[in-house]
Amino acid sequence: MKHFVYVIFLFTIIGCSGDDDGAPVNPPSNPSGLTGIWNLVNVTGGFAGINDDFNKGVIVWDFDDTKKRVEVTNNNAANSSTEDLFPTGIYTFSIITINGNKELIVNERNLGNFEITTNEFVVDEQFKDGFRYTFRR
Questions:
Q1: Are 103 and 114 in contact (CB under 8 A)?
Q2: Which residue has the higher pLDDT, 27 or 117?
Q3: CA angle 38-43-46, nearest 5°?
Q4: pLDDT on residue 86
Q5: Neighbours of 48 (CB within 10 A)
Q6: Higher confidence at residue 5 or residue 23?
Q7: pTM
Q8: What is the predicted pLDDT for the residue at 95?
Q9: How far is residue 2 from each of residues 6, 8, 11, 15, 132, measured CA to CA in Å?
């Protein structure tokens, strides 16, 4: 009988695990690396070969990785012919991988290849005669 109790106890210990169905207790709050404020500082490319610089604070994107949204503040009203992406508003965003390349999707629009460093990210759609957008913190 004593062995039976030990076997039951052993199976109970083995059968209990500390995980909660694999769900992370504290999921990362910034998996894309984008969370926070970014300034659009340069747009180049396009069929006409533009090269426009913007001062910090003119076009600001504030990413919230938890809610997967970006709040755009676009104060570029002085030059409406300049390619500056989105008007002021709140948009959804995601990052997808296609053929090994990360691409940034904002408001269901694929902005192109996405690369990020600590203080800069670039979205490049020049492979299809589009634009290259450079953002800095």
A1: yes
A2: 117
A3: 145
A4: 94
A5: 6
A6: 23
A7: 0.76
A8: 95
A9: 6, 10, 15, 20, 74
Q: First CA to last CA across the chain, in angstroms?
A: 69
Q: What values do phi and psi take at 31, rounded to 5?
A: -65, -30
Chain centroid offset of residue 5 CA: 54
Quick one: which of 60, 67, 61 has its CA closest to 29? 67
Q: What is the mean pLDDT of residues 52-66?
A: 96
Question: What are the two backbone dihedrals, phi and then psi, of residue 136, each rounded to the nearest 5 degrees?
Answer: -135, 155
| 8 Å CB contact between 96 and 102 | yes
Separation of alpha carbons 16 and 31, rounded Å: 31
Amino acid 56: pLDDT? 96
Q: Which of 69, 36, 68 is nearest to 135 (CA)?
A: 36
Confidence band of 83 (pLDDT split at 50, 70, 90): confident
Identity (one letter) of the amino acid at 130? G
CA proximity to 68, closest of 100, 32, 17: 32
Q: State the amino acid at position 48 in one-letter form.
A: A
Residue 61 parent element (H or E): strand 59-64
Quick check: 135 and 122 in contact, CB under 8 A?
yes
CA distance 110 to 97: 11
